Amino acid sequence: MENISDALKIAFATIVFMIGISILFSLVASIKQTADEVLLYSDKTNFYIWESGTGKSGKIVQEKEVIASLYEKNESVEEIHIFKDNKEIYPDDSIYSIAEFINRELCEGNTYLEQIVEINPGQFIYASDGTRIRVTGGATKLQKIYIKQ
Length: 149
What we know:
The chain is of the alpha+beta class and 149 residues long. It contains three helices and seven strands; from the N terminus they run αβαββαββββ. The mean pLDDT is 78.
């Protein structure tokens, strides 16, 4: 009789231990999910809307913003394209300098639709949770497109 009571005590202790382990794993999973959501909402870059360049969305800018973009081109901006009457006028092989281009094309006071396209060079793989992981190098670049309105 004593062996049976000891066996029941061991079985009860095993069940309580298993329930405790289950609660612990559930709690850790819940904490991880909460931490991931807090991290997502605290990073403001997750809510940037990048244009694909094919739609009509973007912002309307004056010629002075276009001129500033031409002079402020840096390592984060890969390319700048300017379209006028469905024809690309910048970059153009016949233009010798930015100043000459501005004097010839950007002195009329027109407005332009500015679209920004994100360029991700390199190769990517996707993790099981959908996360995109960059395998080969290359910094993210921007391409600015201006379309005369």
